[in-house]
């Protein structure tokens, strides 16, 4: 991919050092406040979906509940597992939290060509930008997974280790689909710079132009952040909490902070790449010329972020957790093939437009290619289904072997072609034969009960 030579990043890197520090502190404060609001919002919205009250004790309408939880976690006893690798155990929460903040350095809050004034200095509403800004975000997001893996490994416990391994496989599976969805955006924008990608969406958002890439990224970002229904690295049903089982106090709070900051970061990337970034929505931008000037772009950007955070919460309150095999199948057998085929179609359409073909010819060629792929896939599925039916019929005619599931001392499932022995059924109560002693005891009990009933009637 060749970066477009038309993009101008000369406005970045010219701020004085104190202004860079001010903007960095603002980004940090923005993320922290957004995380506190998102936690309260999640508890309130899920309570509303489940028809219960939710937090209502700390602050008006429970709005200070996140702050109270943070203070409580700070004051809790800080425990370190005796058999753990103490250096790595302490370092893992830091490694998980810091990259989540670093990725926000290249997210634009406003246009680069309309600067604002901060203490008399003109500057852009973005900390910095790079010709490969999206690759920088992918790199920092990939580093954050090391914190989860190191937390599971250093705890010296099997369940945290399994949670860390799950998170690694999850990141590998969904990072590929996420990168392929980015590639379609690069083709249409001609750049990997975040500010240039937003500028290329002045007429139409990429969520409308590239809907398949947008849907794939939405699914991948939920899997990337370990959120429900993809929260398998911390599935308390089988892992007792996952990679952070052995953590407490401020270290546990840092893992929670990293999760919510990652939610905000991936939502900001989705807003920048597919939802027009800081640009105002269509009805407002069409009637108000100043909607994308001054401080107004930050408002539109924040509202889009809030809508995506609401999507995270909505999914958590609606969908149950998937099984791990279903999750891996979705990533490797559905998202990655769909992303690759879609990227091929996007590149074909772009190449035909660059060669001067009109819209009707492009539609004809692309529709023909899609029809051919669907026809081949249907033929393959038909032949595979036919072969499975023939194999199943042959297996049903073959003599089936019975086996003892407890032959090795522990229960094992049957292999293909083997059947379990019939399970003995209990006889109905009327057909059971009582032991003489038990029958005599039962008769005595019945006679005593009848005597008691007669005495009661006589009284």
UniProtKB/TrEMBL annotation:
Keywords: Cell membrane, Membrane, NAD, Quinone, Translocase, Transmembrane, Transmembrane helix, Ubiquinone. One of its GO terms (molecular function) is quinone binding. The keyword rRNA-binding does not apply. Residues 391-459 are annotated as: Disordered. Its EC number is 7.1.1.-. GO terms for cellular component: plasma membrane. The chain crosses the membrane at residues 17-41, 87-110, 130-153, 174-193, 205-223, 260-278, 298-318, 330-352, 364-383. Residues 411-423 have a biased composition (Pro residues). It is an enzyme of class 7 (translocase). It holds the Pfam family NADHdh. It is a multi-pass membrane protein. InterPro entries: NADH_UbQ_OxRdtase_su1/FPO (IPR001694), NADH_UbQ_OxRdtase_su1_CS (IPR018086). Coiled coil: none annotated. It catalyses: a quinone + NADH + 5 H(+)(in) = a quinol + NAD(+) + 4 H(+)(out). GO terms for biological process: aerobic respiration. Its main location: membrane. The keyword Membrane applies. NDH-1 shuttles electrons from NADH, via FMN and iron-sulfur (Fe-S) centers, to quinones in the respiratory chain. The immediate electron acceptor for the enzyme in this species is believed to be ubiquinone. Couples the redox reaction to proton translocation (for every two electrons transferred, four hydrogen ions are translocated across the cytoplasmic membrane), and thus conserves the redox energy in a proton gradient. This subunit may bind ubiquinone. Belongs to the complex I subunit 1 family. NDH-1 is composed of 14 different subunits. Subunits NuoA, H, J, K, L, M, N constitute the membrane sector of the complex. This is NADH-quinone oxidoreductase subunit H. It comes from Wenjunlia vitaminophila (Streptomyces vitaminophilus).
């Amino acid at each position: 991919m060749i970066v477009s030579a038309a993009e101008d990043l000369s406005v970045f890197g010219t701020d004085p050092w104190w202004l860079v520090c001010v903007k960095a502190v603002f980004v940090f404060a923005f993320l922290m406040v957004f995380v506190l609001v998102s936690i309260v919002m999640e508890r309130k919205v899920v309570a509303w979906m489940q028809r219960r009250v939710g937090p209502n004790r700390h602050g008006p309408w429970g709005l200070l509940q996140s702050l109270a939880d943070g203070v409580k976690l700070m004051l809790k006893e800080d425990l370190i597992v005796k058999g753990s690798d103490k250096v790595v155990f302490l370092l893992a929460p830091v490694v998980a939290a810091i990259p989540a903040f670093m990725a926000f350095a290249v997210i634009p809050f406003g246009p680069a060509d309309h600067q604002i004034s901060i203490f008399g200095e003109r500057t852009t509403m973005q900390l910095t930008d790079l010709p490969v800004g999206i690759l920088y975000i992918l790199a920092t997001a990939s580093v954050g997974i090391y914190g989860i893996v190191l937390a599971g490994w250093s705890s010296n416990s099997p369940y945290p280790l399994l949670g860390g391994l799950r998170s690694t496989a999850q990141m590998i599976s969904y990072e590929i689909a996420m990168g392929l969805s980015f590639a379609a955006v690069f083709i249409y924008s001609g750049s990997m710079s975040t500010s240039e990608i937003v500028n290329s969406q002045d007429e139409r958002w990429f969520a409308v132009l590239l809907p398949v890439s947008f849907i794939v990224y939405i699914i991948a970002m939920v899997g990337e952040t370990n959120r429900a229904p993809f929260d398998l690295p911390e599935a308390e049903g089988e892992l007792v909490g996952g990679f952070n089982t052995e953590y407490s106090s401020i270290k546990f709070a840092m893992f929670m902070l990293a999760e919510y900051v990652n939610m905000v970061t991936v939502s900001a990337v989705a807003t920048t790449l597919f939802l027009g970034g800081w640009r105002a929505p269509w009805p407002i931008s069409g009637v108000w010329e100043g909607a994308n000037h001054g401080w107004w772009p930050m408002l539109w950007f924040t509202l889009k972020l809030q809508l995506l955070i609401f999507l995270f919460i909505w999914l958590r309150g609606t969908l149950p957790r998937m099984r791990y095999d279903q999750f891996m199948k979705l990533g490797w057998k559905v998202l990655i093939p769909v992303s690759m085929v879609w990227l091929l179609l996007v590149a074909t359409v772009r190449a035909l437009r660059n060669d001067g073909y009109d819209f009707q010819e492009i539609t004809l060629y692309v529709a023909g290619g899609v029809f051919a792929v669907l026809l081949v896939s249907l033929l393959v599925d038909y032949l595979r289904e036919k072969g499975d039916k023939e194999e199943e019929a042959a297996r049903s005619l073959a003599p089936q072997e019975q086996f003892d599931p407890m032959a090795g001392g522990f229960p094992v499932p049957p292999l293909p072609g083997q059947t379990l022995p019939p399970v003995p059924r209990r006889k109905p109560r009327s057909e059971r034969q009582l032991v003489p002693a038990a029958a005599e005891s039962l008769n005595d009990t019945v006679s005593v009960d009848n005597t008691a009933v007669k005495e009661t009637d006589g009284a």
